[in-house]
Amino acid sequence: MEHSFANYMKCMNANVKSDAERNNGTMTNLLVIKEQLIRIYARFEAYITPVLKFFLMLFSLIIINRNIGFMNKIKNPAIVLIVALLSTFLPLNVMILLAAAFIILHMYALSLECAAVVGLVFLLMFVLYFRFTPKDSVAVLLTPICFALKIPYVIPLSMGFVGGPLSCISVSCGVVVYYILNYVKNNSEQLVGSEDAENALSGFKYVIDSLIKNDTMFLMVIAFSITVILVYMIRRLSINYSWQIALGAGAIINLLVILIGSVSMDTDISIPGVIFGLFVSVLFVLVLQFFVFNVNYSRTEYVQFEDDEYYYYVKAIPKLSMEAPQVRVKRINPQKNPHRN
Amino acid sequence: MLNQERIRLMTKMAAFEEIEGKKDISVNGYFRGDYISFQVLKSAIYATFGFAVALLMYIIYDLETFLTDFYKMDIVAFCHDVLIRYVAVVVVYVLISYFVYSYRYNKARRHIRNYGAQLRELHEMYERERQK
Predict the structure, then answer these.
(1) CB A171 within 8 A of CB A143
(2) Is the ipTM above a cut-off of 0.90?
(3) Which of A59, A51, A63 is nearest to A88 (CA)?
(4) Could A301 and B61 be called an inter-chain contact, meaning their C-beta atoms sit closer than 8 Å?
(5) How far is B10 from chain A (nearest CA, A)?
(6) Which of A194, A263, A315, A333 could potentially form a cystine with A199 if both were Cys, beta carbons 3.0 to 4.6 Å apart?
């Protein structure tokens, strides 16, 4: 009998147990849940993605309206719902443009110079962002949101796993967006527009000053960029537990840079707040690592091709790919090979 | 007569063509020098645009002093200053782009080389079947 390579591989694979069968207890349950999630996602991806986009846009718009909702016309829930529904079938980058438009409209309701500054700063950031990392749209949308939720460190730690070294650009853009909006929100009374051109110019100056002279913001940009790059470099190493080490190292370097920076630049960052936020973020990213990053969330693929004899319509359903491929070497008793004598 | 292994290979190749391959194939369509210089040129244009926006913001920021000092100011020195900063910004942008896009080009080449190997393997499979 011909010991073909295919048969040999089938024998090997039959002996490799899946992770879920090997371990017991809660780990099994978690892995089972994870397998279910992957299966559900693989089957229903076409429906899940639009729903997620809808909620992302809805959430972003609600946060925008709540914090800097100066234009009452677009705070109308009907408009928010319509825009969120639109974004279900719009590409993510268009969603970012829509959110930016919302923000600029609110700024315009406050004063012309606010809209001008925010618009120009956005323009500057888009120039950087669209050139190098146009796929990191989620990072740009989520960074300000995570800042508002007090867990900003989730973003740089996650982008090190999900993105590349250039993701520090998109994360930095998100940080700048947050700080500029935060400033406007906190100083909205002073920035209200007036007819006086001189006031307008000084308003312009105030907002730009809030960025240029904002040591905290620069510190965060530097800390987050270093974190993203470090996490990316470590997780790519082919050592065991590289992901966990990357996460830990990223959190530590993030804390270190913020500590050193806040001491040397004398900023008023509450260090306990940073530590707590980092801690929560690390936990969150651990969960994400388990359920989201680890998996090649492949979807059901439909491909067509033909050859001389047949047309092929193939539906490829992804198998469940488990965590870090565990190569188990099973020793096989050498069988009597009839070819060898 | 359906050869499972061949179908598996063809499916993998078709899936590659549909999704990741599209970008790789389009990148590979350029010569390396052409691709990188095209991307670097695009970056330079973006950098120029960004610099113009930043310059505009700088002027508006200090518009009062700018307008009042306009006649006292040494315009040549100012332009000289602006030009130096412009060149510095563009150089940095171009350098980063050069490395990023040459890395991307190499990656695309690698993928296409794998794809080519798969094509050859497919061809061999057909040959083998024809001989049987």
Answers:
(1) yes
(2) no
(3) A51
(4) no
(5) 8
(6) A194
